[in-house]
Amino acid sequence: MWILIALLGHASNGVAFIIDKILITNAFKRSATYAGLVGILSILALVLAPWVTEWPHGRTLTLALVSGIAFTTALWSFFAALARGEASRVVPVISAFIPMLTLAGTTAFLHERLTGAELMGFFLLIVATIILSSGKAKERLTKEALLLSGVSALLFATMSVTIKAIYEDVGFLSGFVSTRIVAAVTALIIVVIIDSDAGEEILTIFGLSKKSKSGVRNSKFDKNGGIKLNPKTAAGLALLGQTMGGLGFVGVQYAISIGSAAIVNALQVMQFALLVLVAFLFKSKAKVLLGECLNRSVVLKKALALVIMAVGLGLIV
Length: 317
What we know:
By secondary structure, the chain is an all-alpha fold. The chain contains 13 helices and no strands. The protein has one domain (2-115, 139-265). Helix content is 76%, strand content 0%. α2 (31-41) runs antiparallel to α7 and α4 (87-109) runs antiparallel to α5 (116-133). The chain starts with a helix and ends with a helix.
């Protein structure tokens, strides 16, 4: 059941991921903007607070602080890496290392053990993820982009390992709400104190500021033929994306609470599979909206990755 929940959660995240790609490419200028927006919206988890029967304390509270901070800073470093390197290089690196580092962490600190079949399926899912998330790159990653990618993967894995430990100590609801509060506070610190221009960009997107220094894009098309979203459209897409992302995040976190954190993270391949399927359906718009170029060799490669993904899932299930 937790595998099904994880797949549904990642599918919902896949919709959010598609919207993220559109927004990152066409709407936002600063890497901290979207990370801050995602983090701030985490505060919506407070609606669940009345049903929390036990709040983290002692060691568990420390883990909640680490997990929440790691989540928001992982997003920030991920988008910063994308700003400094091609997505076809950055995303495969991060997507491969998150589940592997998570497995290392849960094995070392939570004594998780996978069977031989699960381990084989786990690595096949990572291979499929790398293939599905990669594309034709023009340049190698710079040292800065590679470092940021590694930091992002480590922080995402840290979040997963610590939150799994929190769930084991105080249960899903308490762990989820407490870490979301920390994530929201961390995001506010980033966009208000550390990178105030990102905060200004968020305000401009939602029509709460008229200043232009944040560089929010307003024209419909750029000089290269790409789409530039106006603030209202960007705000609407951001809210839709974060609604889907929020639902997906809850599903993924619940799956982590009752299953293997490493395997759940490896199942993120579902996000990239959904992206590829959408690119197939909207092939004429795929390059402009999603940055996906689908020629014959790419289609064959992606199809092979989907087969590998299916085999990996079969071994895990």
